[in-house]
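Protocol step 4 of 6: record predicted structures for both targets in the notebook before any analysis. Target 1:
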Amino acid sequence: MPPPPTASAEDVRPTRRGLLLGGLRIGAGGLAGVLLAGCSDGAGAPGSGSTTGSTSPAVGTTEPAKAADEDLLASVLRQMATTRALVGAVRRRHRDLSATLAPLGSAHATHGRALGGLPAADRTSPPARDGAAALAQVVTAEQRLVDEVSGAVVAARSGALAAVLASVAASLTQHVAALAEVSLPPVTTGTAP
């Protein structure tokens, strides 16, 4: 039996169905490298010209399993879109947090593309007026997203989907850990002495 054909990185545009069917083909520096390397859109990203490919076929995936994974993925994407909307709102309201939260917004965008695209976000409550409280809102929302994605890793029927979700969960966990290290200057009220 001849070896499976390799796909160029330009041919690789993951879709939800492709992830769910386990037919995700990625170059050595392709999507997995992007997700595992902190979600950079730089070198090694799809379209970078890498031609090495591999396949993770799902064996015996049934229609009910595919449907379950589609529902699972839809839930993850909804949570991710809502969390991304909160991060954007905090960045707009608290300009001093914008640079700190920019990598997180980029990670959500990259993860969303890798998983087939983010839906419109559910309405979120407005961010807190205090920067520290708004940052706490983001950390809480991100932790909820990590929990959702981690649960999806365990529940996924497709090995390829579970692998991509595990990379997403690892990336988001690192972002949450980095946010825990952020210290904001104290808020002063009143007049100066």
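Target 2:
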Amino acid sequence: MISTSNIPYLPQDVCSTGQHEAAVAVDDNNDRHEILLVRVKAGKIEKMRTTKCQHTCTVLAHHDGHLYVAARSALHMYDMAGGQCRQLYSDKTGEKTVARCAISHDGSRIYITNHTHGQLSTQNKGGTKLSTFNLLEMRYPATPHVTAQGHMFVTCYGRNTVVQVTEREEQPADRDNTGWEKQRSDFTKVIVH
């Protein structure tokens, strides 16, 4: 262990925001909803600032100077100065309709997993839904991840599986599974290969 730093109760997630900086989502499921920015300086973790949120703050992603904050049923975008830019997406049809998110490397697409409905959706950076893929048979799509080459992987809790999903082309959001191809792999095979 190189360095530790005490932070408020219940850190939920962490993501890199720069070469020596990170953002930490802190949410106690009650009245504390914060984004804590930290950096490494002279080999030690140093707290920079805290942004208080008016919504839950459970998952973070960063791209091009913006923090994307998943709040269980909504996705918000903040600038790095701590000002909320806007709510990009909201789905109040269940408890965890915005479980996790990932941003494509060019920032043009946002991928959101929906536990409640077993879906992976794609939006453009303006918040317009481009496509939805049903993963109900996989049970609880969890963490999406986009590689630098554009490969999309989604972990699924209920089946101990990693699913590779690739987009063929952009299609209207009201056509589920259109524009998507799915390849399912056993988790250990993905790790080995």
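Step 5 preliminary note on target 2. The chain has two domains: 1-90, 92-193. The radius of gyration is 17 Å.
Proceed to step 6 after PI sign-off.
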